[in-house]
Amino acid sequence: MKSTCCFLLCLSLLLSNGVFGEEAEEVSATMGESLTLHTGVKKEKDDKIFWFSGPDNKILARLNGKPDSAKIYRSDVSLNKENGSLTIQSVSSKDSGVLNVQILNVNKQPLYKKFNIIVYDPLPIPQITRISKCELLCSVLNVSRVTLSWYNGTSLISNTSASDSHIDLSLPLKLEDKNNIYSCVAHNSIRNQTKHLDPLQSAVDGCSPEPRNVILLLLPLSAVFLVIGF
Ligand SMILES: *[C@@H]1O[C@H](CO)[C@@H](O)[C@H](O)[C@H]1NC(C)=O
Ligand SMILES: *[C@@H]1O[C@H](CO)[C@@H](O)[C@H](O)[C@H]1NC(C)=O
Ligand SMILES: *[C@@H]1O[C@H](CO)[C@@H](O)[C@H](O)[C@H]1NC(C)=O
Ligand SMILES: *[C@@H]1O[C@H](CO)[C@@H](O)[C@H](O)[C@H]1NC(C)=O
Ligand SMILES: *[C@@H]1O[C@H](CO)[C@@H](O)[C@H](O)[C@H]1NC(C)=O
After folding, report:
1. Residue with the nearest Cα to atom 9 of ligand 4?
2. Ligand 4 pocket, mutate which of 152, 175, 181 (most atoms under 8 A from CB)
3. How many Å lie between the centroid of ligand 2 and the Cα of residue 121?
4. DSSP 8-class letter at 18
5. Residue 54's domain is classified under what CATH number?
């Protein structure tokens, strides 16, 4: 009796404080795509599973022990009755933030799990434009949390990043060796989009720092040394 009271008191304290485990699991999702969250434990018969969203713990879905007693509180979510996984059909910006799951069973310790959902925009394919004979510009418009990079083959040449606010991101490239294999890559923590440079765009003569120029610069110097030497 006493321990039951304590258990309920502890539970209500936990709930009122919104404490669902110490550390939130960070989950990345792309706007418009589906997202499935797992409870992280094998579902047992008689487990009651509750999914809540937001700082105010608004209930999203619940499973009341028996498999046929699932209840959904938002039309665009579904709950797997076998394992308790929650699926958001089409992630939107309002889904970013905290989502909690709580598993109750009279026979065991209650379990809480917290997710922190980070919603990413769909990642656009970068566009390459020429800004001068020997210089190209790679850009992606109106993006946040994206890094844009130029590669030669698999080696990174340069990069730049957008943080939380939406900006137009662009990165110039100085064409050098026309045998280089250039590509521009936009990536976030979910995926990447690559635009390969058309060989015709890089096949420009006279863009590399010609070794010939270096020799021409050094010639007068060596002439001076020659004069001094003799
Ligand atoms: C639960 O079932 C769903 C739908 O069948 C599946 O996508 C998901 O991977 C399952 N979760 C686990 C933890 O097995
Ligand atoms: C930039 O993207 C945001 C979020 O997708 C959108 O709300 C906004 O209208 C866009 N702005 C422009 C100028 O396209
Ligand atoms: C550029 O790439 C380097 C090496 O991968 C990385 O350490 C750095 O954080 C990146 N910088 C930006 C602005 O993304
Ligand atoms: C670009 O990559 C090619 C092939 O991997 C390599 O031969 C060349 O030296 C690289 N160019 C630069 C400028 O790093
Ligand atoms: C882009 O993603 C593909 C597959 O997801 C991966 O194989 C490739 O290494 C990634 N490229 C870069 C530059 O991150």
Report:
1. 180
2. 152
3. 10
4. T
5. 2.60.40.10
Residues 101 and 144 in one domain: no
- Residue 8 sits in the same domain as residue 92: yes
Same domain, yes or no: 88 and 33? yes
Q: Which ligand is nearest to the CA of 146?
A: 3
Helix, strand and coil in the chain, % to nearest 5: 20, 45, 40
Q: Within 13 Å and on the Cβ side, how many CA atoms surround 25?
A: 13
Atom of ligand 3 nearest to the CA of 159: 1
**Up-side HSE of residue 29: CA atoms within 13 Å toward CB?**
26
Domain that holds residue 160: 127-202
Ligand 1 lined by 83 (C-beta under 6 Å): yes
pTM: 0.73
Q: What is the mean pLDDT of each run of 10 residues along the chain (230 residues)?
A: 41 47 88 96 91 91 82 94 94 95 92 95 95 93 96 97 94 89 95 91 74 51 52
Please give the tally of structural domains in the chain: 2
